[in-house]
Amino acid sequence: MWLFSRKGPSGFSAASTAEQVTEGIDGSGLTAIVTGASSGIGAETARILALRGVHVVMAVRNISAGREVQEAIRKEIPNAKVDAMELDLSSSSSIKGFALKFNHSNHPLNLLINNAGVMATPFILSKDNIELQFATNHIGHFLLTNLLLETMKKTVHESGREGRIVNVSSRRHKFSYPEGIRFDRINDESGYKSLLAYGQSKLANVLHANELSRRLKEDGIEISANSLHPGAIATNLFRHFSIVTGIIDVLGKHILKTVQQGAATTCYVALHPHVKGVTGTYFSDSNVAEPSLQAKDIELAKRLWDFSSTLIHQSDP
Question: What is the β-pairing status of strands 111-114 and 31-35?
Fold first, then answer.
């Protein structure tokens, strides 16, 4: 990543690692949920938060892989507080079960890191009959956030500390379908394009954070909601593209971030004091960045909120 190492106003750059952007920060007393923490930047995010003293709950689809990461973190950081809980973001019943279990645990919740995702999958419907990328990357996190929000509000009230919700999006949010969100054709297999569908789900991540931020500010609640682009990283998100995997093997160290660099912006937005009070903002390379025009569309964000609410209520028994 030496090609992209110019520092921004925050003092950090694309070459900065998660450890560097959180150096000297004490996260003791904070509790975080990190989705998709069994591999890639999710696992590194969990490790860094634990290193800074945060109690980390790893929300993972593959619980055995999650426990391996949990044990690796504990081995490296003997006093780390790390738990693993099962969560399948493509299943509303799994999300509801996770939220119920966490909310009944009496743990506080200061940080919610909506990190998990799938990328450019073939056309598949989720367990709730929603196109898989939209279901996993957006609807699952939308429902999870809604179900955990009261616990976050209670934590803010009791601790007096700002809560933070972080949606891990992508610069691919700028490359969605022309209309942005295909409200009337979410499950249209005939018009499905895997990368555009991925962009649509990532656009939804930014719009969700923006609308959630607006609603929380309107209610005077000290919880921020921001979104970010972690950077192009050599992770298993590329598993559906064998040609991309080959290019990564040859050029990766020069044009792609390492996992340690890829987790930096998430950890910066989650923990850094410079981000206190900042909400409804999009970040990249641990600096404020400019999202697409569609991502800044207030009416589109409101429509997505209503559409998402309808979808999650359709999955109610």
Answer: parallel
Catalytic residue among 177, 192, 268, 282: 192
**CA gap 89, 127 in Å, rounded:** 10
Residue matched to tokens 């780390």: 80
Whether 282 is catalytic is no
Tell me which residue of 131, 127, 48, 57 sits closest to 93, measured CA to CA: 127
Query: What is the rounded distance in angstroms from the CA atom of residue 113 to the CA atom of residue 270?
Result: 8
Could you tell me which of 248, 254, 252, 275 has the C-alpha nearest to residue 5? 254
Domains of the chain, CATH where assigned: 2-314 (3.40.50.720)
Q: Is 16 helix (H, G, I), strand (E, B) or coil?
A: coil
Which pair of structure tokens corresponds to residue 293?
A: 């025009």
Summarised one tens digit per residue, pLDDT across range 103-138 is 999 999 999 999 999 999 999 999 999 999 999 999
Q: For residues 287 and 301, what is the distance between their CA atoms, to the nearest angstrom?
A: 23
Query: Is there a contact between 181 and 211 (Cβ–Cβ < 8 Å)?
Result: no
pLDDT for 265-306, tens place per residue? 999 999 999 999 999 999 999 999 999 999 999 999 999 999
Torsion of CA 199, 204, 209, 210, to 10 degrees: 100
What's the rounded Cα separation, in Å, for the pair 35 and 59? 5
Looking at the DSSP bridge assignments, the partners of residue 113 are 34, 166
Q: What is the rounded CA–CA span in Å between residue 314 and residue 97? A: 17
